[in-house]
Amino acid sequence: MTAKSLKHKFVSGIADGADTSVVRPSNWNDTHDHYLDVNAQTGNYGIAASDSGALITFKSSAAVAVTLPQASNSAITPGTLGFFNGWFCFVRNLGVGLVTITPSTSTIDGFASITLPTGHGGLIVSDGTNYQFVWMAPESYREQLLINGGFDIWQRGTSFTTGAAQYGPDRWKLQLDDASATWTVSRQAADAQSGTNFKCRLQRNNAANNTSPMKFYMALETVDSLKMAGPITLSYYAKAAANCSPTSGALQSRIATGKGTDQSADSLIAAGWTSQLTDVQTDNITATRTRVSHTFAVPGDVTQIGIWFRRCLLARRPPPTTSSTSTASSSRSGRRQRIMCRR
Protein backbone atom coordinates (compact mmCIF):
# COMPACT_ATOMS: atom_id res chain seq x y z
CA MET A 1 0.00 0.00 0.00
CA THR A 2 1.28 3.49 -0.83
CA ALA A 3 1.36 5.81 2.16
CA LYS A 4 -0.61 9.04 2.09
CA SER A 5 1.38 12.02 3.37
CA LEU A 6 0.43 14.90 5.64
CA LYS A 7 2.48 17.96 6.46
CA HIS A 8 1.79 20.77 8.91
CA LYS A 9 1.01 24.11 7.30
CA PHE A 10 3.12 25.94 9.91
CA VAL A 11 6.86 25.29 9.70
CA SER A 12 8.88 25.86 12.85
CA GLY A 13 12.16 27.72 12.52
CA ILE A 14 13.44 26.75 15.96
CA ALA A 15 16.51 24.55 16.06
CA ASP A 16 16.26 21.08 17.59
CA GLY A 17 17.31 20.58 21.17
CA ALA A 18 19.56 17.75 22.34
CA ASP A 19 16.81 15.66 23.95
CA THR A 20 15.67 13.06 21.36
CA SER A 21 12.97 11.64 23.65
CA VAL A 22 10.65 14.60 22.98
CA VAL A 23 9.04 15.91 19.81
CA ARG A 24 11.46 18.39 18.30
CA PRO A 25 10.82 21.08 15.65
CA SER A 26 12.29 18.87 12.91
CA ASN A 27 9.74 16.16 13.82
CA TRP A 28 6.95 18.72 13.52
CA ASN A 29 8.23 19.91 10.14
CA ASP A 30 8.68 16.39 8.77
CA THR A 31 6.21 14.62 6.43
CA HIS A 32 3.82 12.28 8.28
CA ASP A 33 2.68 9.11 6.54
CA HIS A 34 -0.68 7.47 7.17
CA TYR A 35 -2.48 4.40 5.83
CA LEU A 36 -6.12 3.45 5.40
CA ASP A 37 -7.01 0.29 7.33
CA VAL A 38 -8.63 -2.91 5.99
CA ASN A 39 -11.10 -4.56 8.37
CA ALA A 40 -11.86 -8.10 7.14
CA GLN A 41 -15.11 -9.61 8.45
CA THR A 42 -16.57 -13.09 7.92
CA GLY A 43 -19.98 -12.68 9.53
CA ASN A 44 -22.43 -10.20 11.05
CA TYR A 45 -20.80 -6.94 12.11
CA GLY A 46 -21.53 -3.62 13.78
CA ILE A 47 -19.67 -0.77 12.12
CA ALA A 48 -17.75 1.29 14.70
CA ALA A 49 -16.69 4.92 14.68
CA SER A 50 -13.09 3.66 14.65
CA ASP A 51 -13.74 2.24 11.17
CA SER A 52 -13.49 5.81 9.86
CA GLY A 53 -11.55 5.79 6.59
CA ALA A 54 -11.24 1.99 6.58
CA LEU A 55 -12.27 -0.56 3.96
CA ILE A 56 -14.53 -3.14 5.60
CA THR A 57 -14.74 -6.39 3.62
CA PHE A 58 -17.30 -9.15 4.15
CA LYS A 59 -16.68 -12.73 3.04
CA SER A 60 -19.34 -15.28 3.92
CA SER A 61 -21.32 -18.00 2.20
CA ALA A 62 -24.36 -17.01 4.29
CA ALA A 63 -26.28 -13.74 4.49
CA VAL A 64 -24.52 -11.04 6.51
CA ALA A 65 -26.31 -8.44 8.66
CA VAL A 66 -24.39 -5.20 9.22
CA THR A 67 -25.58 -2.50 11.64
CA LEU A 68 -24.63 1.16 11.55
CA PRO A 69 -25.23 3.54 14.50
CA GLN A 70 -27.27 6.67 14.02
CA ALA A 71 -25.50 9.53 12.25
CA SER A 72 -24.57 12.39 14.58
CA ASN A 73 -25.15 16.10 14.02
CA SER A 74 -23.18 17.03 17.13
CA ALA A 75 -20.21 19.36 16.89
CA ILE A 76 -16.98 17.53 16.12
CA THR A 77 -14.71 17.28 19.13
CA PRO A 78 -11.01 16.94 18.24
CA GLY A 79 -9.69 13.60 19.40
CA THR A 80 -13.17 12.10 19.78
CA LEU A 81 -14.46 9.47 17.37
CA GLY A 82 -18.09 9.59 16.21
CA PHE A 83 -20.38 9.32 13.22
CA PHE A 84 -20.21 13.07 12.68
CA ASN A 85 -20.92 14.92 9.45
CA GLY A 86 -18.13 13.81 7.11
CA TRP A 87 -17.41 10.45 8.79
CA PHE A 88 -16.88 7.82 6.07
CA CYS A 89 -15.81 4.25 5.37
CA PHE A 90 -15.70 1.88 2.42
CA VAL A 91 -17.50 -1.49 2.28
CA ARG A 92 -17.27 -4.42 -0.14
CA ASN A 93 -18.87 -7.86 -0.37
CA LEU A 94 -16.29 -10.53 -1.26
CA GLY A 95 -18.53 -13.50 -0.42
CA VAL A 96 -21.51 -15.19 -2.06
CA GLY A 97 -23.93 -14.29 0.75
CA LEU A 98 -25.82 -11.01 0.47
CA VAL A 99 -24.64 -8.21 2.79
CA THR A 100 -27.44 -6.03 4.20
CA ILE A 101 -26.45 -2.75 5.87
CA THR A 102 -29.06 -1.28 8.21
CA PRO A 103 -28.56 2.02 10.09
CA SER A 104 -30.17 2.72 13.45
CA THR A 105 -32.85 5.42 12.91
CA SER A 106 -30.93 7.02 10.03
CA THR A 107 -31.43 6.05 6.39
CA ILE A 108 -28.77 4.96 3.90
CA ASP A 109 -29.01 6.02 0.26
CA GLY A 110 -32.54 7.14 1.12
CA PHE A 111 -33.66 3.69 2.31
CA ALA A 112 -33.95 1.85 5.62
CA SER A 113 -31.27 -0.56 4.40
CA ILE A 114 -29.24 -1.51 1.32
CA THR A 115 -28.08 -4.91 0.09
CA LEU A 116 -24.69 -5.59 -1.49
CA PRO A 117 -24.55 -8.50 -3.97
CA THR A 118 -21.30 -10.37 -4.55
CA GLY A 119 -18.52 -8.09 -5.74
CA HIS A 120 -20.39 -4.88 -4.99
CA GLY A 121 -19.33 -2.21 -2.57
CA GLY A 122 -19.35 1.50 -2.01
CA LEU A 123 -18.58 4.53 0.08
CA ILE A 124 -20.67 5.33 3.17
CA VAL A 125 -20.65 9.00 4.24
CA SER A 126 -22.48 10.56 7.20
CA ASP A 127 -24.21 13.88 6.52
CA GLY A 128 -24.94 14.32 10.23
CA THR A 129 -28.51 13.02 9.96
CA ASN A 130 -28.43 10.13 7.48
CA TYR A 131 -25.90 8.22 5.42
CA GLN A 132 -25.17 8.77 1.75
CA PHE A 133 -23.95 5.82 -0.28
CA VAL A 134 -21.87 5.88 -3.48
CA TRP A 135 -22.25 2.55 -5.29
CA MET A 136 -19.15 0.88 -6.70
CA ALA A 137 -19.91 -2.08 -8.95
CA PRO A 138 -17.47 -4.47 -10.64
CA GLU A 139 -16.56 -3.39 -14.15
CA SER A 140 -18.35 -6.42 -15.60
CA TYR A 141 -21.69 -5.04 -14.39
CA ARG A 142 -21.27 -1.97 -16.57
CA GLU A 143 -21.89 -4.11 -19.62
CA GLN A 144 -25.02 -5.78 -20.96
CA LEU A 145 -27.46 -6.79 -18.24
CA LEU A 146 -30.30 -8.03 -20.44
CA ILE A 147 -30.22 -11.53 -21.89
CA ASN A 148 -30.50 -11.24 -25.69
CA GLY A 149 -30.74 -7.46 -25.51
CA GLY A 150 -29.40 -7.22 -29.08
CA PHE A 151 -32.10 -9.56 -30.50
CA ASP A 152 -29.41 -11.91 -31.82
CA ILE A 153 -31.01 -15.21 -30.77
CA TRP A 154 -34.32 -16.47 -32.25
CA GLN A 155 -34.49 -20.21 -31.49
CA ARG A 156 -38.23 -20.48 -32.24
CA GLY A 157 -37.92 -18.85 -35.67
CA THR A 158 -37.52 -15.32 -37.00
CA SER A 159 -41.13 -14.31 -37.71
CA PHE A 160 -44.37 -14.85 -35.78
CA THR A 161 -47.96 -13.70 -36.23
CA THR A 162 -49.62 -13.15 -32.90
CA GLY A 163 -53.03 -12.82 -31.37
CA ALA A 164 -53.18 -12.19 -27.65
CA ALA A 165 -49.63 -13.27 -26.72
CA GLN A 166 -46.58 -14.58 -28.54
CA TYR A 167 -42.91 -15.18 -27.87
CA GLY A 168 -40.45 -13.64 -30.31
CA PRO A 169 -36.71 -13.33 -29.88
CA ASP A 170 -35.47 -15.43 -26.97
CA ARG A 171 -36.40 -14.02 -23.53
CA TRP A 172 -38.88 -11.51 -25.06
CA LYS A 173 -42.66 -11.70 -25.36
CA LEU A 174 -45.35 -9.66 -27.13
CA GLN A 175 -48.84 -9.28 -25.67
CA LEU A 176 -51.92 -7.50 -26.99
CA ASP A 177 -54.90 -6.57 -24.83
CA ASP A 178 -57.23 -7.55 -27.68
CA ALA A 179 -56.99 -11.31 -28.39
CA SER A 180 -58.39 -10.76 -31.90
CA ALA A 181 -55.63 -8.32 -32.81
CA THR A 182 -53.02 -9.44 -35.34
CA TRP A 183 -49.40 -8.32 -35.18
CA THR A 184 -46.21 -9.78 -36.59
CA VAL A 185 -42.94 -10.01 -34.68
CA SER A 186 -39.94 -10.44 -36.95
CA ARG A 187 -36.17 -10.23 -37.10
CA GLN A 188 -34.77 -7.61 -39.45
CA ALA A 189 -31.26 -6.59 -40.45
CA ALA A 190 -30.18 -3.63 -38.35
CA ASP A 191 -29.88 -0.16 -39.83
CA ALA A 192 -26.46 0.89 -41.07
CA GLN A 193 -24.10 2.20 -38.40
CA SER A 194 -26.40 1.12 -35.57
CA GLY A 195 -23.65 -0.97 -33.99
CA THR A 196 -25.72 -4.18 -33.85
CA ASN A 197 -26.59 -7.04 -36.22
CA PHE A 198 -30.36 -7.21 -35.89
CA LYS A 199 -33.44 -5.29 -34.88
CA CYS A 200 -36.88 -6.50 -33.85
CA ARG A 201 -39.90 -5.30 -35.85
CA LEU A 202 -43.30 -5.13 -34.13
CA GLN A 203 -45.86 -4.72 -36.90
CA ARG A 204 -49.64 -4.36 -36.93
CA ASN A 205 -50.75 -6.37 -39.94
CA ASN A 206 -52.32 -4.82 -43.04
CA ALA A 207 -56.12 -4.54 -42.87
CA ALA A 208 -56.03 -4.82 -39.10
CA ASN A 209 -57.78 -1.94 -37.38
CA ASN A 210 -57.37 -2.81 -33.70
CA THR A 211 -56.14 -0.15 -31.33
CA SER A 212 -55.32 -2.25 -28.29
CA PRO A 213 -51.99 -1.48 -26.59
CA MET A 214 -48.94 -3.50 -27.61
CA LYS A 215 -46.63 -4.70 -24.81
CA PHE A 216 -43.17 -6.07 -25.53
CA TYR A 217 -41.47 -7.25 -22.37
CA MET A 218 -39.04 -9.42 -20.41
CA ALA A 219 -38.38 -10.24 -16.75
CA LEU A 220 -34.93 -10.77 -15.30
CA GLU A 221 -34.20 -13.57 -12.88
CA THR A 222 -33.61 -12.65 -9.26
CA VAL A 223 -29.92 -13.63 -9.41
CA ASP A 224 -29.40 -11.03 -12.16
CA SER A 225 -31.67 -8.40 -10.63
CA LEU A 226 -29.63 -8.33 -7.42
CA LYS A 227 -26.68 -6.95 -9.40
CA MET A 228 -28.53 -3.76 -10.28
CA ALA A 229 -28.89 -1.81 -7.03
CA GLY A 230 -28.19 1.84 -7.79
CA PRO A 231 -28.61 3.79 -11.03
CA ILE A 232 -29.19 1.86 -14.26
CA THR A 233 -29.86 3.06 -17.80
CA LEU A 234 -32.11 1.35 -20.34
CA SER A 235 -30.69 2.43 -23.71
CA TYR A 236 -32.15 1.53 -27.12
CA TYR A 237 -32.85 2.70 -30.68
CA ALA A 238 -36.41 2.95 -32.00
CA LYS A 239 -38.23 4.23 -35.07
CA ALA A 240 -41.69 4.03 -36.64
CA ALA A 241 -42.76 3.32 -40.22
CA ALA A 242 -43.78 6.34 -42.29
CA ASN A 243 -47.53 5.66 -42.00
CA CYS A 244 -47.52 4.38 -38.43
CA SER A 245 -50.41 5.93 -36.51
CA PRO A 246 -49.53 5.88 -32.84
CA THR A 247 -51.30 7.88 -30.18
CA SER A 248 -49.28 11.11 -30.22
CA GLY A 249 -46.24 9.16 -31.49
CA ALA A 250 -45.70 7.88 -28.00
CA LEU A 251 -43.63 4.86 -27.02
CA GLN A 252 -43.46 4.09 -23.34
CA SER A 253 -40.51 2.36 -21.73
CA ARG A 254 -41.17 0.95 -18.28
CA ILE A 255 -38.71 -0.30 -15.67
CA ALA A 256 -40.43 -2.29 -12.93
CA THR A 257 -39.07 -3.55 -9.62
CA GLY A 258 -40.37 -6.09 -7.14
CA LYS A 259 -39.43 -7.93 -3.96
CA GLY A 260 -40.41 -11.48 -4.87
CA THR A 261 -38.29 -14.30 -6.27
CA ASP A 262 -38.34 -15.20 -9.98
CA GLN A 263 -41.95 -14.16 -10.54
CA SER A 264 -43.15 -14.43 -14.13
CA ALA A 265 -43.01 -11.89 -16.96
CA ASP A 266 -46.78 -12.17 -17.46
CA SER A 267 -47.29 -11.34 -13.78
CA LEU A 268 -45.02 -8.32 -14.32
CA ILE A 269 -47.22 -6.64 -16.93
CA ALA A 270 -50.32 -7.46 -14.88
CA ALA A 271 -48.74 -5.52 -11.97
CA GLY A 272 -48.77 -8.75 -9.99
CA TRP A 273 -45.24 -8.77 -8.59
CA THR A 274 -44.69 -8.51 -4.86
CA SER A 275 -44.38 -4.81 -3.88
CA GLN A 276 -44.21 -3.88 -7.57
CA LEU A 277 -43.26 -0.32 -8.51
CA THR A 278 -42.98 0.90 -12.11
CA ASP A 279 -41.08 3.87 -13.51
CA VAL A 280 -42.61 5.10 -16.80
CA GLN A 281 -40.95 7.25 -19.46
CA THR A 282 -42.77 8.39 -22.62
CA ASP A 283 -40.84 9.33 -25.78
CA ASN A 284 -41.95 10.52 -29.19
CA ILE A 285 -40.89 8.06 -31.91
CA THR A 286 -40.72 9.12 -35.57
CA ALA A 287 -39.57 7.62 -38.87
CA THR A 288 -36.02 8.66 -37.99
CA ARG A 289 -34.06 6.16 -35.94
CA THR A 290 -33.69 7.69 -32.48
CA ARG A 291 -31.56 6.69 -29.51
CA VAL A 292 -33.51 6.74 -26.26
CA SER A 293 -32.18 6.48 -22.71
CA HIS A 294 -34.25 5.81 -19.61
CA THR A 295 -32.38 6.11 -16.30
CA PHE A 296 -33.74 4.85 -13.00
CA ALA A 297 -32.28 4.41 -9.50
CA VAL A 298 -32.95 0.84 -8.31
CA PRO A 299 -33.54 0.63 -4.53
CA GLY A 300 -31.17 -1.54 -2.56
CA ASP A 301 -33.88 -3.95 -1.35
CA VAL A 302 -35.15 -4.91 -4.83
CA THR A 303 -34.96 -8.58 -5.85
CA GLN A 304 -36.67 -8.46 -9.27
CA ILE A 305 -36.44 -6.18 -12.30
CA GLY A 306 -38.40 -6.26 -15.53
CA ILE A 307 -38.75 -3.99 -18.54
CA TRP A 308 -41.39 -3.52 -21.17
CA PHE A 309 -42.32 -1.26 -24.02
CA ARG A 310 -45.91 -0.12 -24.50
CA ARG A 311 -47.39 1.50 -27.59
CA CYS A 312 -50.96 2.41 -28.59
CA LEU A 313 -52.05 2.81 -32.21
CA LEU A 314 -54.94 4.79 -33.65
CA ALA A 315 -57.45 3.22 -36.01
CA ARG A 316 -55.80 2.59 -39.38
CA ARG A 317 -56.17 5.44 -41.85
CA PRO A 318 -57.26 4.23 -45.29
CA PRO A 319 -55.86 3.18 -47.65
CA PRO A 320 -53.52 0.80 -45.79
CA THR A 321 -50.63 0.86 -48.25
CA THR A 322 -47.95 -0.35 -45.81
CA SER A 323 -47.84 -1.72 -42.33
CA SER A 324 -47.68 0.28 -39.13
CA THR A 325 -44.33 -0.66 -37.68
CA SER A 326 -42.16 -0.08 -34.66
CA THR A 327 -38.59 -1.30 -34.50
CA ALA A 328 -36.13 -1.43 -31.68
CA SER A 329 -32.53 -2.50 -31.45
CA SER A 330 -29.84 -2.37 -28.84
CA SER A 331 -26.71 -0.32 -29.13
CA ARG A 332 -23.25 -1.70 -28.60
CA SER A 333 -19.96 -0.42 -27.34
CA GLY A 334 -17.36 -2.23 -29.38
CA ARG A 335 -18.55 -5.84 -29.34
CA ARG A 336 -20.49 -5.63 -26.08
CA GLN A 337 -24.23 -5.02 -26.03
CA ARG A 338 -25.39 -2.20 -23.78
CA ILE A 339 -29.17 -1.99 -23.95
CA MET A 340 -29.28 -1.78 -20.16
CA CYS A 341 -26.16 -0.95 -18.23
CA ARG A 342 -24.99 0.30 -14.88
CA ARG A 343 -24.02 3.98 -14.71
Total domain count: 2
Structural class determined from secondary elements: mainly beta
Ranges where pLDDT stays below 50 over 5 or more residues in a row are 314-343
Report how far the terminal alpha carbons are from each other.
28 Å
- The percent range for strand residues is 35-45%
Biggest sheet layout: 7 strands, antiparallel
CATH fold-level assignment of the largest domain: Jelly Rolls
Share of helix among residues?
under 10%
- Tell me the series of helices and strands, N- to C-terminal: EHEEEEEEEEEEEEEEEEHEEHEEEEEEE
Overall strand count: 26
Which descriptor suits the 3D outline? elongated
- Which superfamily, in CATH terms, is the homologous superfamily of the largest domain? Galactose-binding domain-like
What is the averaged pLDDT score?
Answer: 81
CATH architecture group name of the largest domain: Sandwich
Tally of individual helices: 3
Gyration radius, to the nearest Å? Answer: 27 Å
CATH class of the largest domain equals Mainly Beta
Brief account:
The chain is mostly beta strands.
Q: What features would you describe in this structure?
A:
With 343 residues, the chain is mostly beta strands. It has two domains: 36-136; 142-342, Sandwich (Jelly Rolls). 4% of the residues lie in helices and 40% in strands. The protein contains three helices and 26 strands. The strands form six sheets. Strands 12, 15, 16, 18, 21, 23 and 26 form a seven-stranded antiparallel sheet that branches. It is elongated and about 100 Å long. The chain starts with a strand and ends with a strand. The model is unreliable at 314-343 (pLDDT under 50).
